[in-house]
Each structure stands twice: as structure tokens, then as C-alpha cells.
């Protein structure tokens, strides 16, 4: 047994001052709890918890279209994690009652299939949960439970074809190597509807930004489900079942549910609709300000607002910036287009400004003309917070 | 399997029930989860969290221990703080 905590123990742990980049609107307990982590394959992240590890990307590291692997956020639900040594001899099983030829799949099998590459945003469903009002129980994420990477690997549908998919298949079930330490705790299991599992964009990633996946981001294989929140991007995939049934598991229901019809969805997850709640699926249009920082002092000759925007797969049409609390909005310049599932960078130069405090807000609109909300859509688990990010700077 | 240990887990606030709370909650997760969700959870919400851990996660907590933990959380981390 290797204690992950032993490496975390080396973290700077004396924090008299609030960390720059931690939103002051988070609950007081959450703000005091955040530490700077110091993990073997990561640079500094905001550590909310060490067991299981939940680590947030500092917003300053979200200023580009691609988030570096060593700054990518980490989210686990359960305390037992695999080691890189265990994953080095990885293989997985594909079976289920709708598989025609259940079999074991090795890394060489994945590598022999056509390789796809996609730039896609991986975003925790609970991004900015810590900024809900009223506060909602759970990991009190701020702005950095999101990142964008170039993912590479075979299409999931090509992998499933190795085992054969019967026409009566309804869902694809996934299980990873991470898990609980009590027999009574639900293992982390998730499923996808067949249509999304077979979609062009859905892959089993064996590489992230041109390198093997970091252990804490799912080494050696994770499911990449562009447009959908990260709860489906299951890490350390060990077993896939092609099933005629809906997965009845804690992490599908009652966990990760949103009120029916509250958020726009194109591909409803029909087999997981139950009563007045749906399984969370597609992300909502969103954006963040990576620079300047909240509370920063800026020059009166003006400054440049930079950040990223993303949505559920239509692509970003427009990013607007307001310098007067949302009364008037100006169009920002959009950066290079890496595809509809990627971060879209933006920038906006303010020009001269009078001395004094000033708020800066940003809001994005996608190509389906969905815009970030003006009023938070309150839901019990604190998902899909896409209020415009607003910071305060001091013009001096 | 690598079991992430909480080598530098800090103690919870002192009070009746601190020891048992650290012990039973710490079986599966750092007690930092408690601090993180304080002080905004109400007594009913703390009770709901304990019930979830017992029923959904199979935490080995009997009724008497659950009552001790709830009383401790209300006193040490409740919104009255």
C-alpha cells in the first residue's frame, strides 16, 4: 500500500493569507480547507480533499485553449485508487447480455484500431457548486473543475465492435479500477446510451496532450464523452458491458440527477429518465475570466480581459465582456477554433478607464444562440452553474 | 491497490463526540469534508448526510453513534457557529 497522503503531506500547509484565485464567495469552511497540493505528476493545484483526492486547477492556468496535463483537475468519489504499476499490466473485459463475443481487450488491441484525436472540454458537473446560493453540500468547487485537452485513442464504437453489439443493446456500462473500501459502498459505475457511445466523437483515450494519461486523470484508458459532463468520462476503465437494461447503480440514480427539462438537452438519456429527474448529460454554455485576477490592481491605460468559453458541442459564437455589472456588453475577440467541443479563448482590451473599483463580467453564447443565464438555475445537487463569471479589479 | 491515506489529516474541533466522529467518518474519507461543508449545513442537512453514509454507502454506524455524531456536528460545525 502506498499512501497518497504521504506525498500530499509535503504540501505547503501554512496558509495565513487566503490563496490568490480562491473565490471569496466560497463557503468559509471550504476556503480554509483548500491547500496547495504537491503531487508527483502534477504542478500546484488547489486541493479540496486528499482522500479521495479532489484537486482544482487554479484559474490562472486556464488562460489557454489547452490545459496542461500537470495542471488538469482531479475528481474521485471513492478512496481506493489503482497504482501506475497495476495499470502497467492493464487489460479490460467487454461483455454483457448484448455482446455477441465477450472478450478481453489489451492495449495492443486498442492501438491496432484506427486512432481518433479530438480537442474536448472535461468539466465536472459540480463546477462552481461552491458559488451556489444557498450553498449546496458536496465538494465546494470554484472555477477550476474544468480543463480542455487533446484526447487520442480508438472510437468507443470500434472497441465495442470487437465484442459485437447486438441490436437490442440499450446502454453501455462502465466500471473502473478505482473503488470503495467498504463492501457496502457503491462502486463507481456509469453508463451511456448506445447512441452517444456509438457517436463519432466518443473515444477511449489512451493519450492526453500527446502523453500517457496522468494516473489521477485515468491512466491508462478513460472514456472521453465530448459535450457531456465529466461524470461519464470514467477513468481506469476495467470492464465494459453492452446491456439490454438501464444500469441501476447509485452513481446513475439517485446521484448525478437534474430536474427534468431544466437544462437544454439534444440527446435525452431516455433509459435513465425517472420520475421528475433526469441523469445529467450535456454541459451548459459557460465561460471564465483567467486574467486579470479578482482583486487585482490594473493600470488606468487599460488592461486585457482573457479567458475561455465552451458549450455542449455547438461551438462558441460570441463572448461578451461588461465593465459595468452587466448594463452594457462589448464583444470580445475569439481565438483559434479547435473544434466545437474545445475551449474557445477570447480577449478584450478595455482602453482607458477612470480610477477606482471596477467589475468585469463575461458571458458566452453558443452557435445555437444559447447564452449563459442571468439567474442561477437552482437545483438540489448544485450542477450546471453558468452564471457569468464576475470579478472586481482596482483601476489605479 | 493504493489506498490514499490521510497522513496529515488535521483533527476536528474539540467537543463531545469528536473522537467517534473522526473515527467513523474517517473510515472512507478525510474529515476535511466536514470542515468544507461547514458552517452552512443545517442540522437536518447534517442528519441527511449521516443517513446517506449509512444507507447508500454502508458506513458501519449504529443509531447511538449516529446520534452522537449528529450532536457533535451541530455543536462544532453547525450554522450556529
Note down, in words, how this protein is organized.
Chain A contains six helices and 26 strands. Chain A starts with a helix and ends with a strand. The longest helix of chain A has 8 residues, at 156-163. Chain A is mainly beta and 396 residues long. In chain A, the strands form seven sheets. In chain A, strands 7-6-15-10-11 form a five-stranded mixed sheet. Chain A has a five-stranded mixed sheet with strand order 19-26-25-21-22, with no helix packed on it. Chain A has a four-stranded antiparallel sheet with strand order 1-2-3-4. The model of chain A is unreliable at 1-16 (pLDDT under 50). In chain A, a hairpin with a 7-residue loop joins strand 6 (91-95) and strand 7. Chain A has two domains: 84-279, Alpha-Beta Complex (Sulfite Oxidase, Chain A, domain 2); 286-395, Sandwich (Immunoglobulin-like), CATH 2.60.40. With 81 residues, chain B is mainly alpha-helical. Chain B has one domain (18-77): Orthogonal Bundle (Cytochrome Bc1 Complex, Chain D, domain 2). Helices cover 51% and strands 2% of the residues of chain B. Chain B has helices spanning 18-25, 32-36, 43-55, 63-77, and one strand at 2-3. In chain B, helix 3 (43-55) packs antiparallel against helix 4. Mean pLDDT of chain B is 89; it is low at 1-8. Strand 5 of chain A pairs antiparallel with strand 1 of chain B.
| Assembly context of the chains | heterodimer
CATH superfamily of the largest domain in chain A: Oxidoreductase, molybdopterin-binding domain
Enumerate how many helices of chain A there are, as a single number: 6
**Strand order of the biggest β-sheet of chain A:** 7-6-15-10-11
Shape of chain A: globular
Amino acid at each position: 500500500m502506498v499512501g497518497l497522503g504521504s506525498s500530499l503531506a509535503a504540501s505547503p500547509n501554512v496558509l495565513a493569507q487566503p490563496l490568490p484565485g480562491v473565490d471569496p464567495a466560497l463557503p468559509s469552511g471550504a476556503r480554509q480547507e483548500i491547500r496547495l497540493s504537491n503531487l508527483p505528476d502534477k504542478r500546484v493545484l488547489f486541493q479540496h480533499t486528499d482522500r479521495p483526492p479532489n484537486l482544482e486547477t487554479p484559474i490562472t492556468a486556464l488562460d489557454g485553449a489547452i490545459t496542461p496535463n500537470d495542471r488538469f483537475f482531479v475528481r474521485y468519489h471513492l478512496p481506493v485508487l489503482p497504482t501506475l504499476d497495476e495499470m502497467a499490466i492493464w487489460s479490460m473485459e467487454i461483455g454483457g447480455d448484448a455482446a455477441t463475443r465477450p472478450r478481453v481487450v489489451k492495449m495492443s488491441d486498442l492501438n491496432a484500431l484506427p486512432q481518433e484525436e479530438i480537442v474536448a472540454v472535461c468539466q465536472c458537473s459540480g463546477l462552481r457548486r461552491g458559488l451556489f446560493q444557498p450553498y449546496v453540500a458536496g465538494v465546494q468547487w470554484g472555477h477550476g473543475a474544468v480543463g480542455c485537452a487533446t484526447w487520442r485513442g480508438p472510437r468507443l464504437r470500434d472497441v465495442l465492435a470487437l465484442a459485437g453489439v447486438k441490436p437490442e443493446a440499450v446502454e453501455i456500462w462502465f466500471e473502473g479500477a478505482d473503488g470503495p473500501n467498504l463492501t457496502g459502498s457503491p462502486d463507481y459505475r456509469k453508463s451511456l446510451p448506445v447512441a452517444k457511445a456509438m457517436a463519432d466523437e466518443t473515444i477511449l483515450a489512451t493519450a492526453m496532450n500527446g502523453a500517457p494519461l496522468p494516473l489521477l486523470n485515468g491512466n491508462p484508458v478513460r472514456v472521453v464523452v465530448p459535450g457531456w459532463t465529466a461524470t461519464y468520462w470514467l477513468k481506469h476503465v476495467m470492464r465494459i458491458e453492452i446491456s439490454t437494461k438501464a444500469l441501476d447503480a447509485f452513481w446513475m440514480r439517485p446521484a448525478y440527477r437534474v430536474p427534468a427539462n431544466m437544462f437544454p438537452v439534444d440527446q435525452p438519456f431516455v433509459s435513465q429518465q425517472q420520475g421528475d429527474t433526469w441523469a445529467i448529460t450535456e454541459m451548459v454554455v459557460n465561460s471564465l475570466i483567467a486574467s486579470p485576477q479578482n482583486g487585482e490592481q490594473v493600470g488606468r491605460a487599460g488592461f486585457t480581459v482573457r479567458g475561455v468559453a465552451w458549450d455542449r458541442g455547438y461551438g462558441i459564437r460570441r463572448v461578451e465582456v461588461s465593465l459595468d455589472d452587466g448594463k452594457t456588453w462589448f464583444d470580445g475577440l475569439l481565438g483559434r477554433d479547435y473544434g466545437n467541443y474545445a475551449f474557445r479563448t477570447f480577449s478584450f482590451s478595455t482602453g482607458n478607464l477612470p480610477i477606482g473599483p471596477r467589475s468585469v463580467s463575461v458571458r458566452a453564447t453558443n452557435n445555437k444562440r444559447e447564452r449563459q443565464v442571468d439567474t442561477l438555475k437552482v437545483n438540489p445537487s448544485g450542477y450546471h452553474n453558468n452564471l457569468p463569471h464576475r470579478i472586481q479589479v482596482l483601476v489605479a | 491497490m493504493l489506498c490514499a491515506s490521510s497522513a496529515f489529516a488535521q483533527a476536528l474541533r474539540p467537543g463531545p463526540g469528536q473522537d467517534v466522529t473522526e473515527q467513523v467518518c474517517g473510515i472512507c474519507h478525510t474529515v476535511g469534508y466536514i470542515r468544507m461543508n461547514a458552517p452552512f449545513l443545517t442540522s437536518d442537512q447534517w442528519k441527511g448526510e449521516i443517513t446517506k453514509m449509512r444507507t447508500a454507502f454502508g458506513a458501519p454506524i449504529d443509531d447511538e453513534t449516529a446520534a452522537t455524531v449528529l450532536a457533535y456536528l451541530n455543536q462544532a460545525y453547525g450554522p450556529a457557529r
